[in-house]
Amino acid sequence: MPNNLSKIRQDFSMLRMDAAGRSLAYLDSAASSLTPEPVIAAMDAYYRSYRANVHRGLYKASEKATEEYERARKDVASFIGAAPEETIFTSGTTGSLNMLVRMLENELVFGDEIVLTVMEHHANLVPWQEMAKRRGVSLRYVPVDAEGRLNVHALDAVLNEHTKIVSCTWVSNVTGVVNPVAEIVKMVRVKTSAMVVIDAAQAMLHMPVRVNTLDVDFMVFSGHKMFGPTGVGVLYGKRAHLDRLEPVVFGGDMIHEVTLEGSTWAETPRKFEAGTPNISGVIGLGAAVRYIASFDRDEMRSHEFAMTEYALAQLRGVEGVRIVGPQHMQDRTGVISFVVEGMHSHDLSAVLDAKGVCVRAGYHCAMPLMSAMECPTGTARMSIAPYTSKQDIDALVEGIRHAQSVLGTTSGK
Amino acid sequence: MDETLASLYQERIMDHYRNPRFVKDLSCPMSCASNGANPTCGDRLSLSLVIDEGDRITDVSQKAQGCAISVASASLLSEMIVGKTVSEAEELNEDVVRELLGVPITINRVRCAMLPLATLKQALGNRHKSPISQTNS
Question: For the segment A345-390, what is each residue's pLDDT rounded down to a tens digit?
Fold first, then answer.
């Protein structure tokens, strides 16, 4: 194993080797990435040594908590090329999207159009669907091709003067397809005055993200998919939008003044952070971005690229395995869905579990995409992360062959 | 075979998965039926029953698609209910199914294992209606 890889793996206690020298082949980072020691230590430090609420207290522990919370904001903002005032902490991608949909809702009228794609995760589908019912706006869905790639011409064709929002994922959590976000933003700007929302949940760990150069209006992502803890995420929005938009969650901290006659709001980002936040989560997310930034990101990307290439080649070498999505390396990340002939993906993942291999099985919260890719019973999914080793992939392939012998093929299934 | 694997995919389960019982046409007109599905994972089951005047289940026709646990469960349950009265069948519960399968069912496989039971309950509930009713469990 290369030096750098064994070094990074040491930061993750879940990857510790057992007495026989084996470690968990964790190939489900697309669902949730493992959490490195420095992130756990940072959250621990909050709970053990400066446990206090933020933004209010005038004693040392509270001041320290507030400093660390706002330092996390600064570091996360800088990580994505945004200003701190444009970086709102939320409960995660789903929380961000639900809140954003409610924020934008009041600016929409009957007849407005919202463009989504069929490859969206349910978090970037269902909130829009429900809002569309409430406001009488129309949803347009851009289709994908046989490899699961976005039909960019179809996107172009669907844009018109009624288009008010275009929301799409950067990277598919099923096929690993990388959408041409920069191109999409340009296309939208040329033809419409619509706002662009990007779901970056699957992108953040795997590629540099700079909202300033991308010119997106809003972007959302989760901490737990990028070495951070669960229960925390980000909503990025352009300053002008956040200044203009009204909050939709109310309570303490987001106000300027409250009387019995009415209330006024604080400025962004506090305007959109009502109540006591997930303080340790935010501090953990700050530690996570600093951890990622401590690595040579080009090297990280090369490693993931090599692992993805290796995984695709190995999977292709197993008879009965069909890769769902792009068959090769172009414009994709290390998220690989596949089906094995003659077996249900649930049974496959149970067999793999017994062999210490962690993959995901099912619809991956993307039922419309499963339909479009003609996978009525879902798929198995493996995903690459910076700590993935060749041995992990070898264990997966060995596990698949083992499942083929245990479960065999059956008629009529 | 690995011990944990052996426990879940033991011979009986695999036998009922590969050769499910009661996958056939009914011997006489059906008394009631139902379709069940686990939309989150693609398990499906269509189940029809023949019930005589003594309220006894005399025949079953089933067709299950999906994971080994749900297919085997449908086959084993069909075998178990033939000859039972409707009240006996209505009393069947999750514990009975667990015992019937005889293998450890983890929390993420419970819906697979219990789909046939849920579909059976729906079918019995349909017996005074005429159309087949679709149901999701």
Answer: 999 999 999 999 999 999 999 999 999 999 988 999 999 999 999 9
Task: Name, in order, each residue with C-beta under 8 angstroms of B91's C-beta and a sequence gap of 6 or more.
Answer: none
Query: In this complex, which of B5, B14, B67 lies closest to A344 when CB atoms are compared?
Result: B67
Interface of A with B in 379-408 (CB under 8 A): 406-408
**Between vectors from CA B128 to CA B125 and to CA B134, what angle results, nearest 5°?**
50
CA neighbours closer than 13 Å in the CB half-sphere of residue A95: 18
The lowest-confidence range among A257-266, A365-374, B99-108 is: B99-108
Q: What is the DSSP string of A157-186?
A: HH--TTEEEEEEESB-TTT-BBP-HHHHHH
Residue B126 near residue B34, CB atoms below 8 Å: yes
Best mutation target, B67, B101, B105, to test chain A (most A CBs within 10 A): B67
In the numeric block, the tokens 């303490």 are attached to A252
Provide φ and ψ at A116, rounded to 5°. Answer: -125, -175
ipTM of the complex: 0.83
Q: Is A365 a catalytic residue?
A: yes
CB neighbourhood size of A371 (10 A): 12
Of the candidates A97, A89, A68, the residue with the CA atom closest to the CA atom of residue A231: A89
Question: The whole model's pTM is what?
Answer: 0.93
